[in-house]
Amino acid sequence: MAISPDSALLSNRLVLVTGAAAGIGAATARAAAAFGADVAICDRDEAGLAETAEAVRTLGRRATTGVLDVRDAGAVREFVSALGPVHVLVNNAGGGFHSDFLAVSDKGEAALVAENFTSVTTFVRAVVPSMPTDGRGAIINITSIEAHRAGPGFAVYSAMKAAVANLTKSLALELGDRRIRVNCVAPDVIPTPGIGGELPVKTPLPVAGHVDDVAGAVVFLASDLSRFVTGTTLHVDGGNHAAGGWGRSPEGAWVTAGEPAAEPK
């Protein structure tokens, strides 16, 4: 297969993005449309969803919306069944709250599991049976750097993101004979409405992350440029996953989390 600029295009594909009213989901929907895809989007936030849909239509692409809670399996299946074949599924919806593990109630834990893990399995089961098997089928799960390290104060959220990363590997094998690729994108320090405004730059790559950085990774994994990539995670984190516990001191030296910084001179 010869690579060309057209290999990045998503023309003649329908891309379904969950949690698309704002942040990474909205940026992903816009990026997919910019690269030629029609888009189906869902979220609980009706006003934000309408803004994303308008942005997609301004780019000349079709936008189908569904106001729903991704934890509602019946609503998910009803929305998906009305779409017809979906070429690319982007499981972006998710969220969490800060709490010591012992303080999380049964109800709170169930909500975290449903939003961050069960919603993914529900959408996969709803979409895959009619997903084309011509090589254009792709599932992209938005996880987090917390899937690959401890998450104190976010233990259940972190565990569910790790579960999605592991599920992604299993699905890559199970769906490979359908020519459906399954991958993850794991962001970190990306300012979104759920996190707040600008975040301090504390990454090996000394630039601020943006939702469009994540959207670009999704477009790559959805396109023919990644036709031989499946079962893997693309980290969009400025180098934080590679850094592990390393960081720069105010003096510019590399130190680990347990190593004191050099005394100022």
Sum up the structure in keywords.
265 residues, alpha/beta, two-stranded antiparallel sheet, 7 helices, 16% strand, globular
Give a written overview of the molecule.
The protein is an alpha/beta fold and 265 residues long. The protein is built from seven helices and nine strands. The chain has a seven-stranded parallel beta sheet, sandwiched between helices. The model has no long low-confidence stretch (mean pLDDT 93).
The number of helical segments is 7
Fraction in beta strands: 15-25%
Order of helices and strands: EHEHEHEHEHEHEHEE
Overall average pLDDT: 93
Offer a concise description of the structure.
The chain has 265 residues and is an alpha/beta fold.
Detail the topology: elements first, then pairings.
Blueprint: E1 14-18, H1 23-34, E2 38-43, H2 46-58, E3 63-67, H3 73-81, E4 88-91, H4 106-127, E5 138-142, H5 155-174, E6 181-187, H6 211-222, E7 233-236, H7 240-243, E8 246-248, E9 254-256
Parallel strand pairs: 1-2, 1-4, 2-3, 4-5, 5-6, 6-7
Antiparallel strand pairs: 8-9
Helix pairs in contact: 1-2, 1-6, 3-4, 4-5
